[in-house]
Amino acid sequence: MSEQLEEQVDKSSIVRQLATTINLSKGGGYLDKVTGKVMELKKLAYEKQFPAIYFSDPENIDAERMNNISQLDWSKEFKECEAIISSYESTSKP
């Protein structure tokens, strides 16, 4: 049962689709199937700084963001959606 679940998760995982699975060896390396050499693993790091208020008052940040989104003019986007829906409806009628 768990193997089937793991297979389904692997198939639907975007990370699994983008990444390659390799078997690691002792010492922090892997065997390259093409060259047959043991390759050393490299480090990958990413940092992003957030203002301190994101952590001290996250609810207020979310409320401000939603307020800003709700005040935008969405008429152009709604017209585009209506045009797409109407074009779909006109082509799908028998």
Share of β-strand residues: 5-15%
**What composes the largest sheet?**
3 strands, antiparallel
SSE order in H/E notation? HHEEEHHH
User: What's the helix count?
Assistant: 5
Q: Say how many strands there are.
A: 3
The helicity comes to 40-55%
Radius of gyration from CA coordinates? 25 Å
Spatial order of the strands forming the largest sheet: 1-2-3
The gross shape turns out to be extended
Terminus-to-terminus distance: 45 Å
The computed structural class is mainly alpha
Put the structure in a nutshell.
This protein is mainly α and 94 residues long.
Compile the SSE list and pairings.
Layout: H1 2-12, H2 14-18, E1 24-25, E2 29-31, E3 38-40, H3 53-56, H4 58-70, H5 75-92
Antiparallel strand pairs: 1-2, 2-3
How would you describe what is shown here?
54% of the residues lie in helices and 9% in strands. It is mainly alpha-helical and 94 residues long. The protein is extended, with a radius of gyration of 25 Å.
Task: Give structural attributes.
94 residues, mainly alpha, 3-stranded antiparallel beta sheet
